Amino acid sequence: MKADIPTVYVVDDDVSVLKALKRLIRSAGFNAETFDSAREFLNRGSYDSPCCLVLDVRMPDLSGIDLQQELSKLGLSIPIIFLTGHGTIPMSVQAMKGGAVDFLTKPCNDEELLQIIHQSIEKNRLERSEQAGLDSIRQRIDSLTQRENQVFRMVIAGMLNKQVGYELGISEKTVKTHRARVMQKMQTDSLAQLVRLAERVGITPHFMEL
To answer: What is the distance between the alpha carbons of residues 59 and 153, in angstroms, rounded to a whole number?
Structure first.
C-alpha cells in the first residue's frame, strides 16, 4: 500500500458488501481497507493519509452512529459516508448533524458513491493541509522565548517599539532586537503577516493580559 495514495475505509458487518466495495474503490485508484465491525476500525489506530470512511449504520455492538460519535470524542476528523439498507429519516438527520458527508441507501449507484468519495477525500486533504499550517504556526510560537512572546503579543496588538519598551522596562534598542528575532522565528517579513498568523491560531491579545 502506497502512503501517498488516499485510503477509503469501509466498515460493514456484511462480508459480501465489504468485498464488493473493496473492488469498486480499488478500481478507482484508491487504497481500500475493510473492517467487519466498528470496534475493529477503532482499534486500527492512526489515519495518516487523506482518507474517508464508508460506514454501515446497523451493526452489532457499536452502530455506525456510535462510531461517528466515538471518532468525534477522539478528535478524529474523518469524512463519513453512511451507506445502509435500513435507514430512517431521524437516523439520517442525526448522522448529518454529526457531520456526515452523505447518507446513502443500499443498493446505491457506483458512480454516485465514487463521486462522493472523491469529494470526501478532497475535503479531508484540505482539512489536513489547514491543520498542518496551524500546527506549524503554533510550533513557531512555542519556539519563542518568554520575552519574545511578550514582544510578539504587544507588537501584534499595535504597540510601537517605545511603548513596548516602556511596558517591559527595557530599551527601545532591545525591543528592536527581540522584534527581529520574532519575525525570524515566525518566518514573516511584515507586521501584517505576523498579525495574520496570530489571528489564524486565535491570538487576539489585550494590553491588560500581558
So the answer is: 51
